[in-house]
Amino acid sequence: MKKSIIFLIAIVAVFLLMLLGLVLTYNSMVSKDQAVKEGWSNIQVQYQRRIDLIPQVISAVNSSMTFERGLLENITALRTQWLDSISGSIPVNVNTTQQLDARISALLIAINENYPELKSVEVVSDFITVVEGTENRIAAEKIFYNDAVRSYNTAINSFPGNLVAGMFGFEDAPYYELGQ
Question: Are 137 and 46 contacting, i.e. CB atoms less than 8 angstroms apart?
Fold first, then answer.
């Protein structure tokens, strides 16, 4: 009778160990599957960041460039007006000079208060830096994703993971490949 109890305990122990292995393998696969999903989500977040960022930066660049274009056009118009008035009479020159002084003063005040330095080149440079930074983040997230996919795919294709994967329907995750 003792031998049958020991045999029964051994069978139950083996069954419990197999069950424990199955549970641990399943939980490991779920964890790795979640890492793959997190990696893909991180890629999507960075793409969304780029999508959201580009119109904002382009708007800032356009706004700065529009101001600078207007500033240069205004200065050119004042210069032309001054050059046209030089050949006129002194009262016309005085009047033009006063208008020119008033406009340039107003222009300089507006520039100093609102635009202490012309910034379109700096804004464009910052835009390029931001886009490069976003592209680098996307590349890093692709690497993280592919690492998670490798770990997950290895787990579901190796023993005993392949048995658990077959029982619970785990399938290979796709790698992020060049050109995607």
Answer: yes
- Whether residue 87 contacts residue 17, with contact meaning beta carbons closer than 8 Å, is answered with no
How much is the pTM? 0.60
Please tell me the distance from the alpha carbon of residue 113 to that of residue 60, in angstroms, as a whole number: 18
Beta carbons of 61 and 120 less than 8 angstroms apart: yes
Contacts (Cβ under 8 Å, ≥6 apart) of 45: 141
Q: How far apart are CA 169 and CA 163, in angstroms?
A: 10
Q: Which amino acid is at 30?
A: V
CA 148 from chain centre, in angstroms, equals: 20
The DSSP string of 24-92 is: HHHHHHHHHHHHHHHHHHHHHHHHHHHHHHHHHHHHHHHHHHHHHHHHHHHHHHHHHHHHHHTTS-HHH
Query: Residue 16's pLDDT is what?
Result: 94
Residue range 103-116: mean pLDDT, rounded: 62
What is the number of helices (H) and of strands (E) in the chain?
Answer: 4, 0
